[in-house]
Design goal:
Layout lengths: L1 E4 L5 H8 L6 H16 L4 E17 L2 E19 L2 E7 L5 H13 L32 H16 L4 E20 L4 E17 L6 E9 L8 H14 L9 E8 L1 H14 L2 H5 L20 E3 L22 E5 L2 E2 L6 H7 L7 E4 L2 E4 L4 E3 L6 H8 L2 E8 L9 E12 L2 E14 H6 L1 E3 L9 E2 L3 E9 L2
Helix pairs in contact: 2-3, 4-5
Keywords: Hydrolase, Protease
InterPro entries: Metalloprtase-TldD/E_C (IPR045569), Metalloprtase-TldD/E_cen_dom (IPR045570), Metalloprtase-TldD/E_N (IPR002510), PmbA (IPR047657), TldD/PmbA_N (IPR035068), TldD/PmbA_sf (IPR036059)
GO biological process, one term: proteolysis
């Protein structure tokens, strides 16, 4: 059961929040008070979470500013347990904590029992955790964001063959988590995020093509130069002009560009998510301890990478995770687990619980398909003829059966080289087969939360003309 309460901030509170982005002591104190009030109202157990966010962004198109946005919030949520009954409430700053706690407990008392809902076991709670250097205090002004956006767009427009712009943008922000539980956990952390992106068009009339490029980092100084991002976007777009169709065929080797391969690795993560296994919505639900990838391949997940894009010192339940080899030498070793999901499966959490509003569900952290030992150039040469994909269209992936069918654009591989652009084709197979026929290159870039090198998958069906 869930209740949401919204209140306007008074100006003093707004000013205090804006000027105390690093200091979470007040939020920890208020979360602790919520716990005490919930227990006084009759809760057996409780946890309180504050999700803090700040962001600023600028978007431009054709040399003019289209939008400037700024936002800030501190969202409180309280989860209470009365026996095996649970309820959650959420509110913005300014709420009456006593009333909120009493409402939560009253709601829990009339809720149905949930045999799996619980706090993390006390023995699993993090007693100490490392500084993962997730926060960069650099303050990028609106003017600086605008200049970076304009510079990116102009660099893309300067590429010969680019005819129009879909826009460019730059952003900076931070997010943080404060967590207090009734059985002894109290902690907080924050992470910054900076981004740049641009999208442009090449060609004219019905032969226009669009593409983009972007960068996203925890530290502002690590961002790619705006001109470089713009130039890459322009060059990618121009290469797509005048695409051809290709003949329908079977047993085609398909190569996924790294930014497309990251999405494919995300399918693997979804298939080994404990929540999907518990709901019986994963085609790998009966494959624990069995080979699910080609021998020699591994999938790792590590929440403790210093400056990692998806690193966290503890999860949404106060449990510290550790680096895990989810799939090793092709064999499935682990599910992603939160406490309640682990209990449902008769297992123990591995610190992958993530807060989504007032709920906790398992998810990956810094996930990686570990690279192979062949360069992408040599991988393409070894194929001879095939299809190199730079964009996928549609959502034709059935995670229950593994059936896979998606529209695609990219380049035809001929005699080991990218020969010409291709569009209006569909690729199809089953994820079970695709996993067993996957070959990774060695060009992994670990700056993203999901990392993958270029990958080749044999034996796919291609529907063309």
């Amino acid at each position: 059961m869930l209740l949401t309460v919204h209140n306007k901030w008074d100006e003093n509170e707004r000013l205090a929040i804006m000027t105390s982005e690093i200091d979470s002591a007040d939020l920890l104190s208020r979360a602790s008070q919520l716990i005490d009030l919930a227990k006084a109202a009759g809760a057996d157990q409780a946890d309180a979470v504050v999700v803090r966010s700040r962001s600023r962004s600028v978007s431009v198109r054709l040399g003019k500013v289209e939008g400037t946005e700024a936002s800030e919030s501190d969202d409180f949520s309280l989860r209470v347990f009365v026996g095996q009954k649970v309820a959650s409430v959420s509110a913005n700053p300014g709420f009456d904590m006593k009333i909120l706690a009493e409402r939560a407990v009253a709601m829990a008392k009339v809720s149905p029992e949930d045999p799996f809902a619980c706090l993390a076991d006390e023995a699993d709670l993090a007693r100490s955790y490392p500084d993962l250097e997730l926060y960069d205090p650099t303050d990028i002004s609106t003017d600086a964001l605008r200049e970076a956006s304009l510079e990116m767009e102009q660099a893309a427009l300067d590429v010969q063959g680019v005819t129009n712009s879909s826009g460019a943008g730059a952003s900076s922000g931070m997010g943080g988590l404060v967590l207090v539980t009734s059985h002894g956990f109290s902690g907080s952390y924050m992470a910054s995020r900076f981004g740049r992106s641009v999208s442009v068009i090449a060609g004219e009339g019905t032969k226009m093509e669009r593409d983009y490029d972007f960068d996203s980092r925890l530290y502002a100084a690590d961002l790619d130069d705006p001109k470089l991002i713009g130039r890459r976007a322009g060059e990618r777009t121009v290469k797509r002009v005048n695409p051809r169709q290709v003949d329908t065929g079977s047993n085609i080797t398909v190569v996924f560009d790294p930014r497309i391969a990251r999405g494919f690795v995300g399918h693997i993560a979804g298939a080994i998510n404990g929540a999907s296994v518990a709901r019986k919505t994963s085609f790998l639900r009966d494959k624990m301890g069995q080979q699910v990838l080609k021998a020699g391949l591994s999938i790792t997940d590590d929440p403790l990478i210093v400056r990692g894009s998806s690193s966290r010192p503890f999860d949404g339940e106060g449990v510290s995770g550790e680096r895990m080899v989810m799939i090793e030498d092709g064999v499935l070793n682990h599910w992603f687990l939160s406490t309640s999901t682990a209990r449902e499966l008769g297992l123990v959490t591995n610190g992958r619980g993530v807060r989504g509003g007032t709920a906790v569900s398992p998810a990956s952290t810094n996930l990686a398909l570990e690279p192979g030992d062949i360069s992408p150039e040599d991988l393409i040469k070894s194929i001879g003829n095939g299809f190199y994909i730079t964009e996928l269209i549609g959502q034709g992936v059935n995670m229950i059966t593994g059936e896979y069918s998606r529209g695609a654009t990219g380049f035809w591989i001929e005699n080991g080289e990218l020969a010409y652009p291709v569009s209006e084709v569909t690729i199809a197979s089953n994820l079970k087969d695709m996993f067993m026929r996957l070959t990774p290159a060695n060009d992994i870039d670990r700056k993203f939360g999901v990392a993958s090198p270029t990958i080749a998958i044999e034996g796919m069906t291609l529907a063309g003309r």
